[in-house]
């Protein structure tokens, strides 16, 4: 009986299983929801929905085979994004293989002397920069052990070290000023200039990062003063090690590798604003930078390409999820039910103030991330729905990007379907419940900051 009860225990479904389930539901909806479409017009480089033009068309229900065909079609239609993720992951893997990241952190630690307490804000700021520039996500897992060593060396606990990495990257991911995986994809779908509106996003990012740093430092100081206050006290007692850093030499080759990545980020930003570069150009630049970093770092030709493949393997989960998520829209588009959904939602929201509509969009994106824990995947799934609704309700498209961006980013550190969060916690040996006891305060704080930011943006006609 006991074994039977244990078998009935709920297990969180695999993310891909959830997405397959949503695709199947989407296919069933093509039989239930009446097919319909709006007329559209091109204006100022945007395809706009014409209000009042909705009409029903012949029903086009999907077949069983369409459920599976939607995935390769989704991968093809999102190909630029999929391969960008692969190549950025590969380039990142090469630099990681040279030891540049770990040695660089250790070098900074050794230079701070009596000001080692600054490692918390400094490290979190660095991770946040990677978060808003290259969309640091899955890669955070490999830095968790380093964060823990830093924290224990300073007299804190493993939870402090883990939060330095997770919340640092999440703060930048939420800011998203130059993040091609979230803001870039969402703005591309919304047909507005990539990375436009970065000024307000930067201001909000500073508030978000400050809230995260303050939360971590207050907890860290409390733990250092009295280790019994640690939320992972049993773990610290079990480890019972006074970890210290071995300060290995930070070589010029490793510094050159990091400089190449930083230079590539800057070059891509310049190219986007100056030459309207897309994901293809950015992918090529990261591939070139990664290969050069490997050769300069002493990996050799074979070693460089081995590291490239390893980096791609590490990012596989996030890259392939784009195709699965895009498959949902493929089914709905082929069944011609998207416009019917848009028509129904816009009709319900037509008399609702724009300030409330934006919050509704934010909440929708927040909870949808339980099923689609991928920024680019969620953008490709939801923006085709949100943008027409915004057009019909006379809401600036930039606002729909903000609602998506903040809803997606905050929930990344909350839901157990996030492979990044659960992977990082597993490496740190921290339970999900222990994480929630620590993280709920900053999550609530971030929610209030983002709602206030969206309200201000709406008043400013952002």
UniProtKB/TrEMBL annotation:
Localization per Swiss-Prot or TrEMBL: Cell membrane
Q: What is its main location?
A: membrane
**Domain of life, per lineage:** Bacteria
UniProt GO cellular component terms? plasma membrane
What does the record say about its membrane topology? Multi-pass membrane protein
Which UniProt keyword terms apply here?
Cell membrane, Membrane, Transmembrane, Transmembrane helix
List residues traversing the bilayer: 12-33, 74-95, 115-134, 164-183, 203-221, 255-277, 283-303, 315-332, 352-372, 413-432, 438-460
Q: Transmembrane helix as a keyword?
A: yes
PANTHER family assigned: ARGININE REPRESSOR, BASIC AMINO ACID ANTIPORTER YFCC-RELATED
Q: What is this protein called?
A: C4-dicarboxylate ABC transporter
Origin organism is Staphylococcus arlettae
């Amino acid at each position: 009986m006991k074994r039977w009860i244990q078998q009935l225990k709920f297990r969180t479904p695999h993310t891909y299983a959830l997405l397959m389930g949503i695709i199947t539901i989407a296919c069933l909806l093509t039989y239930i929801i009446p097919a319909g479409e709006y007329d559209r017009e091109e204006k100022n480089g945007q395809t706009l929905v014409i209000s009042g033009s909705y009409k029903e068309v012949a029903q086009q229900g999907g077949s069983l085979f369409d459920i599976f065909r939607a995935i390769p079609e989704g991968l093809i239609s999102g190909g630029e994004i999929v391969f960008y993720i692969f190549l950025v992951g590969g380039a990142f893997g090469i630099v990681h293989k040279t030891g540049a990241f770990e040695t660089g952190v250790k070098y900074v630690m050794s230079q701070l002397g009596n000001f080692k307490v600054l490692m918390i804000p400094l490290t979190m700021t660095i991770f946040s920069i990677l978060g808003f520039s290259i969309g640091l996500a899955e890669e955070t897992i490999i830095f968790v052990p380093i964060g823990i060593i830093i924290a224990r060396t300073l007299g804190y606990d493993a939870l402090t070290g883990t939060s330095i990495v997770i919340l640092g990257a999440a703060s930048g991911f939420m800011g998203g000023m130059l993040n091609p995986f979230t803001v870039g994809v969402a703005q591309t779908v919304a047909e507005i200039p990539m990375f436009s509106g970065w000024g307000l996003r930067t201001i909000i990012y500073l508030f978000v990062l400050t809230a995260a740093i303050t939360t971590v430092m207050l907890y860290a100081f409390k733990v250092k003063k009295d280790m019994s206050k640690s939320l992972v006290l049993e773990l610290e007692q079990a480890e019972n090690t006074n970890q210290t850093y071995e300060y290995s030499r930070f070589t010029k080759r490793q510094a050159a590798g990091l400089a190449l990545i930083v230079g590539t980020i800057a070059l891509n930003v310049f190219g986007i604003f100056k030459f309207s570069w897309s994901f293809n150009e950015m992918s090529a630049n990261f591939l070139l930078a990664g290969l050069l970093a490997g050769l300069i770092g002493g990996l050799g030709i074979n070693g460089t390409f081995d590291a490239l493949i390893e980096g791609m393997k590490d990012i596989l989960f996030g890259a392939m999820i784009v195709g699965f998520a895009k498959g949902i829209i493929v089914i709905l588009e082929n069944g011609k039910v998207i416009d019917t959904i848009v028509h129904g939602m816009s009709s319900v929201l037509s008399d609702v103030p724009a300030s409330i509509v934006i919050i509704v969009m934010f909440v929708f994106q927040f909870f949808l991330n339980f099923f689609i824990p991928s920024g680019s995947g969620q953008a490709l799934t939801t923006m085709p729905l949100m943008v027409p609704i915004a057009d019909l309700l006379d809401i600036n498209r930039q606002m729909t990007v903000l609602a998506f961006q903040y809803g997606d980013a905050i929930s990344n550190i909350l839901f157990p379907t996030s492979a990044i969060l659960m992977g990082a916690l597993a490496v740190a040996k921290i339970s999900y419940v222990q994480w929630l006891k620590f993280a709920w305060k900053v999550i609530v704080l971030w929610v209030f900051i983002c709602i206030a930011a969206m309200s201000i943006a709406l008043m400013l006609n952002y």
